[in-house]
Design goal:
The complex is a heterodimer. By secondary structure, chain A is an alpha+beta fold. In chain A, 23% of the residues lie in helices and 18% in strands. Chain A has a domain of 63 residues: Alpha-Beta Plaits (2-Layer Sandwich), CATH 3.30.70. Chain B folds into 3 domains: 210 residues, FAD/NAD(P)-binding domain (3-Layer(bba) Sandwich), CATH 3.50.50; 103 residues, D-Amino Acid Oxidase, Chain A, domain 2, CATH 3.30.9.90; 60 residues, no CATH class. The chains are: A alpha+beta, B alpha+beta. At the A-B interface, helix 2, helix 4, helix 5 and strand 6 of A face strand 11, helix 5, helix 6 and strand 15 of B. Bound molecules: flavin-adenine dinucleotide and iron/sulfur cluster (SF4) (2 copies).
């Protein structure tokens, strides 16, 4: 069924449509130690770029590189201080061409 | 250099609000620097989207001759859906197909760049690829510029105009916005899909550069929000807008909800064969009037999404026009304050008065209760199904059983969705009050 093909697109293919000019500095950092006591792990499903991966030891593995800079994660975050959030340095990060 | 003022104003953010503020200031003869963190204006910005252009009359006469338009909206449809049903109010007007038009689809990388070009034409200095990283304050604590991540450092000005959009870290640093208020924000995720122009024309019933705008309720698995589908020249934009706390609690991935919408029997035929060109995400400040920050403080004004000025009142989702309107007003207020030699909060107070006298705050004030009604449980989770079932009861021919009649159809559909007639009457009254 052609319609099912909509779901067929992998997340990697989806993200490959976005232009990221990845900077050397991680503009967002996550303190996995704090995440260990988190009861919601809201970031894991809410992040539209799917950048928060739960680890076996109850922490979070985060990679800043393909980030939309939207702010969802720090807004829904359940633990004070878990996320340190800044914008990437000027000219770096996501570039939308069809926003 | 204590007290050395480099610019009359530094405007942070070259979105619609910032460019409008810079235009007003530069045209008034003030020196203004417009700071943008992206490599070009629009590169960080995402919307639905439709721009309602009449506010541009104040910037460029006959703007429609040069604005980078995709299509002019002539058809506007509001669709309520369940998984298998949909009920639409479909409005079309050929009056919208001609000057001065009503809404246009346009892409932010082109529109924002065009508008920023008007600011530089007027003499504003645009500095891209530069983040304003914080506020500079003088000895008395008054804001007098911004720090940047450039080697050459600070930009000093008599007034800072914070047009840095949703998440405004400048408004937060100034203590005007709370650090993180999820309940006042929605996440918008959008897919831009390639589809040939002629295919768009045929599927949506369009000719030439006519366009369609479809707003959808009931497509978000009960998460307060909605969906949209807009036609561009040879792409379509489809996406959903989702209340942050509810999205987080639901544990659903946002792109799953776009996939749901694209598979819906009322939407899928429009999109058959379309391929993903770009995926995007951005927050929307949806708190409305009651969530707006203080708009002026000593040495700083806040405009556009930084001041939560998107009008997200269910049947309207307008932010670009509100950003431009508030940016222009901010520019005028700064010009007056500099002229009067008083850039304190009191000296900048004409900004709010100006906004109240025009659509920006008048519309927000009028519809201040709309966000809570539109995002309420009944409107989001029960009414789309109730209305669809009512239509089904009315239009399904069940011979030899006689037709149910309007009242009975209402009763049947209401009971099925747990809507009491009393609640229905109360919400109708409330809607009349909210939108009346
Ligand atoms: C999914 C979605 C759909 C929408 N649909 C519509 C629609 O159909 N019609 C409509 O009118 N509105 C719509 N909106 C709302 C609209 O996008 C916003 O209201 C509008 O963009 C606000 O303009 P602005 O200039 O205030 O902020 P923005 O457009 O966000 O511009 C802010 C600018 O500031 C820059 N910036 C931020 N911080 C800094 C910093 N520290 N230093 C330097 N630069 C900085 C950013 O890069 C950006 O360019 C939608 C929004 C979303 C997310
Ligand atoms: S919500 Fe915050 S605290 Fe919880 S896992 Fe995510 S980042 Fe960590
Ligand atoms: S800012 Fe948005 S895209 Fe980036 S990590 Fe946070 S939620 Fe994900």
């Amino acid at each position: 069924m052609t319609v099912r093909a909509w779901r067929g697109i992998s997340f990697a293919e989806r993200m490959a449509t976005v232009d990221f000019r990845v900077g050397a500095r991680a503009h967002i950092t996550v303190d996995a130690e704090i995440c260990r006591s988190c009861t919601t792990t809201a970031c894991v499903t809410a992040c539209p770029a799917d950048l928060f991966a739960p680890t076996a030891d109850g922490g979070i593995l985060f990679n800043y590189e393909e980030c939309f800079e939207c702010g969802t994660c720090y807004m829904v975050c359940n633990r004070e201080g878990a996320i340190t959030w800044t914008y990437p340095d000027g000219g770096q990060g996501v570039v939308f061409h069809h926003g | 250099m204590s007290g050395a003022t480099e610019f009359d104003a530094v405007v942070v953010g070259a979105g619609p609000a910032g460019s409008a503020a810079a235009i007003a200031l530069a045209r008034a003869g003030r020196s203004v620097v417009l700071v943008e963190r992206g490599p070009f204006p629009g590169s960080k910005n995402v919307y639905g989207g439709v721009v309602y252009g009449r506010i541009l009359d104040q910037i460029v006469p006959a703007w429609w001759e040069e604005v980078p338009v995709e299509r002019w909206i002539v058809r506007r449809s509001t669709m309520m859906m369940t998984g298998t049903q949909s009920l639409s109010v479909d409005y079309r007007s050929q009056a919208w197909a001609d000057r001065p038009y009503n809404g246009m689809t346009t892409v932010r990388s082109r529109f924002d760049r065009w508008l920023a070009g008007k600011a530089t034409d007027a003499g504003a200095r645009l500095v891209t690829s530069t983040v304003a990283t914080g506020l500079v304050r003088d000895a008395s604590g008054r804001i007098c510029g911004v720090h940047t991540d450039r080697g050459d450092g600070d930009l000093r000005a008599r007034v800072v105009v914070a047009c840095d959009g949703v998440n405004s870290f400048l408004a937060k640093e100034a203590g005007l916005l709370p650090p993180a208020e999820a309940s006042h924000h929605t996440l918008g995720v959008k897919e831009v899909l390639d589809l040939p122009r002629s295919v768009i024309d045929e599927r949506f019933g369009l000719t030439g550069d006519e366009g369609t705008d479809i707003e959808i309720l009931g497509c978000t698995r009960g998460i307060p929000g909605g969906g949209f589908l807009y036609t561009n020249a040879d792409t379509v934009s489809v996406g959903v807008v989702l209340s942050l706390p509810h999205l987080a609690a639901a544990g659903v991935r946002p792109e799953e909800l776009i996939a749901d919408l694209k598979e819906h029997p009322s939407i899928a035929p429009y999109l058959r064969g379309a391929t993903l060109r770009e995926y995007a995400a951005h927050l929307i400040p949806e708190g409305g009037y009651d969530a707006m920050p203080t708009l002026a403080t000593d040495g700083m004004l806040v405009a556009g999404d930084a001041a939560a000025m998107t009008l997200a009142a269910g049947i309207w989702l307008e932010g670009v026009n509100f950003a431009i309107g508030s940016g222009l007003a901010a520019g005028r207020a700064v010009d007056r304050a500099i002229g009067a030699g008083d850039c304190s909060a009191a000296g900048l107070a004409s900004y709010r008065a100006d906004l109240e006298a025009q659509f920006v705050l008048a519309d927000h004030k009028r519809f201040r209760r709309a966000p809570s009604l539109i995002l309420s449980e009944r409107v989001q989770q029960r009414y789309p199904g109730f209305l669809c079932d009512m239509a089904e009861e009315l239009f399904t021919v069940t011979n030899p059983t006689p037709k149910p009649g309007g009242l009975r159809a209402t009763r049947i559909a209401a009971a099925r969705h747990g809507v009491t007639l009393r609640a229905l009457a109360a919400d109708t009254l409330r809607a009349l009050r909210v939108f009346g």
